[in-house]
Amino acid sequence: MNYKLKKKLELFLEFLIFGLFMGITEDLIAIRLTTDTSFNLRTLWIATIVTIPFAIFGELIVDKKDEITNSINKFFQKKRNKKS
Questions:
Q1: pTM exceeding the 0.70 threshold for the entire prediction
Q2: Could you tell me which of 31, 33, 45, 72 has the fewest CB atoms within 10 Å of its CB?
Q3: Where are the transmembrane segments (predicted)?
């Protein structure tokens, strides 16, 4: 594995782990504030399962934000050119 790829993977995993931690914490706070459920392993498990896809999706968007921004700009530029 080359150095650049290794660094990208390391950065991705760092943000993913931080995103998971923040997402789980946020979900547990929301669960506690909106229900009478006490904290237990089942609650933690559910919060974790709900958080994982959003954390992964969020990290993929952050990694590709420049490509996504360019694609969106090109899309709207083509629409503007068609209207002219």
A1: no
A2: 33
A3: 12-31, 43-62
From the list 2, 4, 58, 3, the residue with the least C-alpha distance to 26 is 58
Query: What pLDDT band is residue 83 in, cutting at 50, 70 and 90?
Result: low
Parent domain of 76: 3-83
Q: What is the rounded distance in angstroms from the CA atom of residue 3 to the CA atom of residue 11? A: 12
Distance CA(83)–CA(12), nearest Å, equals 40
Alpha helix ranges (H) inside the chain: 3-34, 41-63, 65-83
Split into its structural domains, the chain has a count of 1
The rounded distance, in Å, linking the Cα atoms of 60 and 14 is: 13
Cβ atoms < 10 Å from Cβ of 54: 14
* Residue environment code for 60-71, b if the CB has 16+ CB neighbours within 10 A, otherwise e: eeeeeeeeeeee
Predicted confidence at residue 39, as pLDDT, reads 86
